Amino acid sequence: MSIEKLKQNYPVSIRWIPFPLHPETPAEGKSLEELFAGRDIEPMRQRMKELMAEAGLPYGDRTHTYNSRLAQELGKWADTQDGGEAIHDALYRAYFVDNINLYDKELLVGIAEQCGLDNTAAREVLDQRTFKNEVDDDWQRAYQHGITGVPTFYKDDLVVVGCQPYETLERFVKHLLEQSRSNAS
Predict the structure, then answer these.
(1) Bridge partners, residue 75, by sequence
(2) How far, in Å, CA of 110 to CA of 105, rounded?
């Protein structure tokens, strides 16, 4: 995966910030045909598969989009836990490969547990919406910065949007490192 390769090759740290893609999606999800009514979704599906393959990411035959709000809150909590960063890959796989409804609390708790996180604490976070305000704040920041898609790589008002091949992300990181060295001089 491009992000992991970047972390191996450069002194970068990645911080996951939630972003609302289709926040109006109901709890039960929505078929892609319904979401993109009147459009031929097969070319879009093929393009996503190609982009994901270029980035070294698995991508399944998704049929639905699901509301990811609860998953984002769970991810925000997981970031506060030892080893919690593993949940981001697990949530990606659940959504984009396994076509799992990320608004289902039981499935989310199971994903947290598979990542070595405390399932009782995960359930409490979801039931009490402990990280709701933090995710609201992240969404607001995203809107303020003009972010419109995921993933978005953002640093010092420079932006790379969408699933990108490693070489594009590497150029972005090299540019940021050069800027940092220039500013330090």
Answers:
(1) none
(2) 9
